[in-house]
Amino acid sequence: MFKYSIDDDLFLKLLEPRDAARLFELIVHDREMLGEWLPWVAFTREAGDTENFIRSQLEVYAKGLGVYCGLVYHGQIAGCISLQDLNLPNRKVSIGYWLGSDYQGKGLMTKACRALINYAFQELELNRVEIRAAVDNKKSRAVPERLGFTQEGVIRASELIGDIYVDHVVYGMLAGEWTS
Question: N or C end of the chain: smaller count of CB under 10 Å?
Fold first, then answer.
């Protein structure tokens, strides 16, 4: 089971089906905020949807293609972070994340990203980590900018959220550039 300690108050853990109710509660609490940036929120209507997603991500983990973690702060799941689209032949991965509104402004996501980036470069021996965020999502964009990622460009109409296409900014970090 994947568990990665960050500090005394914060750790990452592989989500399990028993986490579905808490995670769904967090999504419901912040549905409007999350739905502005994440297309899957509209399709998450009950705890069973969240449980099915967690089960699918456990399969991804079992195949060695990524890891979807709960960000646990003071014993409560505060959000999620993932290594997704793991491409071992090219030694690269993408990081995705979201955080409940009650937990924002504490530096938690920056710490969590730093931990996963260290894991990607040191443990998985990857060469590239990428983060994408909607152009107008200032909070999500602030994380890679704080961590010293290079803004590499904009992908136009990258994601459909509701009936609107949003552009994504692409940020990249190479292993040789990273200082943990």
Answer: N
pLDDT at 103: 97
Whole-number pLDDT of residue 179: 86
The full DSSP string for 68-127 is: EEEEEETTEEEEEEEEEEEETTTTEEEEEEEE-GGGTTSSHHHHHHHHHHHIIIIIS--S
Flag residues of the chain having pLDDT under 50.
Answer: none
pLDDT of residue 51: 96
Pairing of the two strands 150-161 and 164-174: antiparallel
Q: pLDDT value at position 180?
A: 66
Residues with Cβ < 8 Å from 19, sequence gap 6 or more? 54, 70, 77
Q: How far is CA 153 from CA 93, 133, 147, 170, in A?
A: 17, 11, 17, 5
- CATH code, domain carrying 82: 3.40.630.30
Q: How large is the angle between the packed helices 47-62 and 20-29, nearest 10 degrees?
A: 120
Q: Is residue 169 part of a domain?
A: no
SS3 annotation, 120-162: HHHHCCCCEEEEEEECCCHHHHHHHHHCCCEEEEEEEEEEEEC
pLDDT of residue 131: 98
Q: Per the domain annotation, does 154 fall within a domain?
A: no
pTM: 0.93
- Number of domains within the chain: 1
